[in-house]
């Protein structure tokens, strides 16, 4: 069972407005030439975007559906680009498991309205089996190659509607620290300041993060920047009803330490758990030092709790979870990197 706090407010799915009853010229230009448009229906919503299903008939008579996400403002424009580039990069590696992206752009008739367009998959709202799911994720990690050989991504991607720090970086510890610092500031701006959390974070940045991440790239050890989905909770995973293949979508993609994609495979609020981690490591070995794996996972999951806390002002529980985990890690690694023994 997935725990849903009582104060969670799901986004309202509105009716199709007049502006969406006919497709904008920019969207039509991105669809296959000569296709005929059938129905356009609302197909879900978030707090910052509205999704549609577009049914078409291709010139050869084949019926083909497409998925359209509509966003507004400069932030919406950047989000559409980030999702397009993320899906494009993933689709190039695991084409059977990521919707094929077609285009992103700005409406001709409304420069404040932007879109992302991809192929539509009819999906069952169930998680694939753990073995199926982790096999696809492992394939993405193993076969992907960072275009720069560094950690980061070619454009800004987003945690929800929050832009992430994705500038290219040679050192994973530096990349993760930079991203986490920025997300902590975001969370603090939403939830307010907490003196204990501030004190713990100081120790996290000076002691715990160097202790857990620096050994990955020192002492003759190395890690490959792997393409990570970046937000692999159950809401971004489905099963294609036609092929029974797992489908990964709505990424905040980045080239990262492959274990980073397990950020949500620890918390009770998700349909993924530690069994998925065990199954995953049958495909890809645990990074050295092996004995640090669980605490590295806790560190990555901590970042997920901070992000969730920032996205949802009414939620006070995930900050508490983050503080509890920081207490444990700070107590375990008081000497920081100086306490690491080969």
From TrEMBL:
Q: What is its EC number?
A: 2.7.1.172
Q: Where are the transmembrane segments?
A: none
Q: Name one GO molecular function term.
A: protein-ribulosamine 3-kinase activity
- Give the matching InterPro entries: Fructo-/Ketosamine-3-kinase (IPR016477), Kinase-like_dom_sf (IPR011009)
Catalytic activity, reaction form: N(6)-D-ribulosyl-L-lysyl-[protein] + ATP = N(6)-(3-O-phospho-D-ribulosyl)-L-lysyl-[protein] + ADP + H(+)
Give the matching SUPFAM superfamilies: Protein kinase-like (PK-like)
Q: What is the protein name given in its UniProt record?
A: protein-ribulosamine 3-kinase
